Backbone:
């Protein structure tokens, strides 16, 4: 009888533990290929900024891989090494002898990753864009963590099409999702409104660019589905040298 009681207590405790929300600190950061506003190329400086945030998950944009302008360095791998995190790179386009795109750093092992190429207009200086999708297993839950960088041109039609493509591709996965990146969209623009129907904004409207006297919020974090997530806290970090964007952080909880 005593053994049965002990077993029952153990099962109850395990059940209580497993139902606790998963709390994550997420960083999105456009690193400008690690070239700061002082025109110094410094991957280690970017790594220090990342480490100081104590982020569990990091979405990076404007990352170089083997390009001549950044001395042929695989920046995602180097940042993974310097921060002690798992790292993957996702190519958006071929660029000056190497590749240019997005990256993800994670304190948790990355089960799989893939690149979703996004629609774009191949004229008038528009560039290929992509979303890097990773699947992670965190405290008993599988989630998708995604880094993306939408079109930068003033005319918004590419960004709208790209956001629709991301929304369609990710919701079909039927897993909790964190989507982070440089959307090149301020909060009330149409591409972001695409997500508002079923996604929860995990960041506020505090500006993230330019780094000196910032005026616009274009770096965002969204989570899906709304009912699974709670936003605990969000802030913009005042780091105005390492990149031309400010780092944006959100602490969020996933309800199991």
Residues:
């Amino acid at each position: 009888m005593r053994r049965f009681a002990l077993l029952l207590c153990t099962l109850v405790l395990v059940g209580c533990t497993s139902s606790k929300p998963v709390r994550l600190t997420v960083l999105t950061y456009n690193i400008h290929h690690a070239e700061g506003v002082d025109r110094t190329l410094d991957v280690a400086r970017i790594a220090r900024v990342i480490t100081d945030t104590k982020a569990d998950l990091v979405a990076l944009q404007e990352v170089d891989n083997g390009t001549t302008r950044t001395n042929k360095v695989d920046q995602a791998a180097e940042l993974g090494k310097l921060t002690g995190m798992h790292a993957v790179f996702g190519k958006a386009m071929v660029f000056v002898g190497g590749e240019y795109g997005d990256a993800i750093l994670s304190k948790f092992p990355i089960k799989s990753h893939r690149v979703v190429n996004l629609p774009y207009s191949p004229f008038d200086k528009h560039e290929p864009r992509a979303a890097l999708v990773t699947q992670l297993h965190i405290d008993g839950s599988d989630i998708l963590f995604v880094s993306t960088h939408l079109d930068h041109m003033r005319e918004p039609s590419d960004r709208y099409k790209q956001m629709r493509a991301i929304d369609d591709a990710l919701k079909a996965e039927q897993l909790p999702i964190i989507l982070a990146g440089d959307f090149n969209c301020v909060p009330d623009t149409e591409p972001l409104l695409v997500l508002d129907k079923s996604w929860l904004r995990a960041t506020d409207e505090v500006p993230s660019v330019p780094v000196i006297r910032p005026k616009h919020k274009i770096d965002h974090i969204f989570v899906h589905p709304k009912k699974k997530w709670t936003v605990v806290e969000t802030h913009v970090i005042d780091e105005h040298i390492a990149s031309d964007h400010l780092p944006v952080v959100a602490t969020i909880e996933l309800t199991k």
